[in-house]
């Protein structure tokens, strides 16, 4: 019995010694692409068509104009940069997209707010009976397609 137990322990110890995987890492300097400040990572993965690894960055830019005594806020412009890498994570190129407003960015499939997000309400009693109010997290397909009606306070 002792011999069987000893052999089992040796077999277990030997299998765990060879179970280690070799991991290699590579680094990429975001400052070289000017992505170290003011940019947010919104997506990363492998493109199904080109099989390239990508990292997508977004930058929100306030679209406002200054008048003599006023500032007119027009919305939020979006700059989207996709950095492409090969299978060995060597940098290939950057694809730039610019959107004039949030609606344009969302309708083109950019996930500037995340894949799912919750609707924020100041006061739930202001809702008109909950008409068209989402009951859970929403995504880009909901935005600019449905109207949430509120009653003035």
Task: Give an overview of the whole structure.
Keywords: Signal. Residues 1-19 form the signal peptide. Helix content is 14%, strand content 29%. It has 153 residues and is α+β, with helices and mostly antiparallel strands. The protein has a four-stranded antiparallel β-sheet.
Present the secondary structure layout.
Elements: H1 2-17, E1 40-46, E2 53-66, E3 71-85, E4 91-99, H2 102-107
Antiparallel strand pairs: 1-2, 2-3, 3-4
Structure summarized in a few sentences:
Residues 1-19 form the signal peptide. The protein has 153 residues and is α+β, with helices and mostly antiparallel strands.
Features:
single chain, 153 residues, four-stranded antiparallel beta sheet, 2 helices, 4 strands, elongated, signal
**Number of beta-strand segments:** 4
Sheet with the most strands? Answer: 4 strands, antiparallel
Residue runs with pLDDT of under 50 for 5 or more positions: 149-153
Radius of gyration: 25 Å
Number of helices: 2
Helical content stands at: 10-25%
Strand content: 25-35%
| Average pLDDT score | 77
Q: How far is the first residue's CA from the last residue's CA?
A: 81 Å
Number of domains: 2
Signal peptide: 1-19
Keywords: Signal
């Amino acid at each position: 019995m002792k011999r069987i137990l000893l052999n089992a322990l040796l077999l277990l110890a030997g299998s765990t010694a060879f179970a280690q995987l070799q991991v290699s890492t590579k680094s990429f300097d975001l400052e070289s692409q000017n992505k170290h400040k003011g940019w947010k990572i919104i997506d990363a993965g492998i493109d199904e068509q080109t099989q390239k690894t990508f990292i997508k960055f977004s930058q929100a830019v306030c679209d406002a104009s200054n008048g003599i005594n006023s500032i007119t806020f027009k919305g939020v412009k979006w700059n989207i940069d996709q950095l492409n890498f090969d299978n060995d994570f060597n940098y290939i190129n950057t694809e730039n997209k610019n959107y004039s407003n949030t609606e344009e960015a969302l309708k083109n499939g950019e996930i500037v707010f995340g894949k799912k997000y919750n609707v924020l309400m100041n006061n739930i009693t202001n809702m008109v009976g909950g008409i068209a109010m989402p009951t859970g997290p929403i995504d880009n397909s909901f935005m600019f397609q449905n109207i949430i009606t509120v009653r003035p306070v």
